[in-house]
Amino acid sequence: MARAFPARAVIHSSSLAARIIRAVLFGSLALGVLVACKRTPAPAGPLAGVARTPAPTPADQTYTTRGRLESLPTPDGKQPLVVHHQTIANFLDEDGSIVGMTEHAMAFPWLSESLDLGEARPGDFVEIVFEIRWTTKPRVLLTHVRKLPPGERVELSPVVETGG
After folding, report:
1. Which helix (DSSP H) or strand (DSSP E) does residue 35 occupy?
2. Per-residue confidence (pLDDT) for residue 35, from 0 to 100
3. Distance between CA atoms of 163 and 106, rounded to whole angstroms?
4. What's the pLDDT score for residue 68?
């Protein structure tokens, strides 16, 4: 004769089965995501060994400007990438007011994980794109560097300050 189980035991058994099924499905999904995701290979060349930063939140502002690549970052993080860039007339402050940013040598301690310098080396004229986040880090994130074609110059004053 079959043994009867109280309704409570059946519900408990059912929820245990549901938990097992959810755990198996979640585990399969997690494994699938890990397999499907491609790791970005470590950069070669001048950025080899340099720490990279993902963009955790959308940028408050993004700026494109031109300048001269002054120095490359060191793997130990003691020297950031520095670009002497042109004046950015439309630079906004935290309140959204246009305050501009003067031409200067700007340090970029945070580099996007997708940043590739290509052929750009110190002394080259470049176009850069960087993002500003006023309330989260990284506050300033360099996302793009493109070496300008030969003969295309950028008018810059002598470097008088380094800022960021």
Report:
1. helix 7-36
2. 37
3. 5
4. 97
- pLDDT recorded at residue 112: 96
Query: So what's the architecture of 45-163 in CATH?
Result: Beta Barrel (2.40)
pLDDT beyond 90 at 147 = yes
> Where in the chain are the domains?
1-37, 45-163
Encode pLDDT of 60-75 as tens digits.
999 999 999 999 999 9
How far CA 54 is from CA of 40, 131, 143, 163, in Å, comes to: 12, 12, 10, 23
CA distances from 10 to 3, 7, 24, 111, 116 (A): 12, 5, 21, 56, 59
From 132, 141, 120, select the one nearest 70 (Cα to Cα).
120
The two tokens of residue 17 are: 């089965």
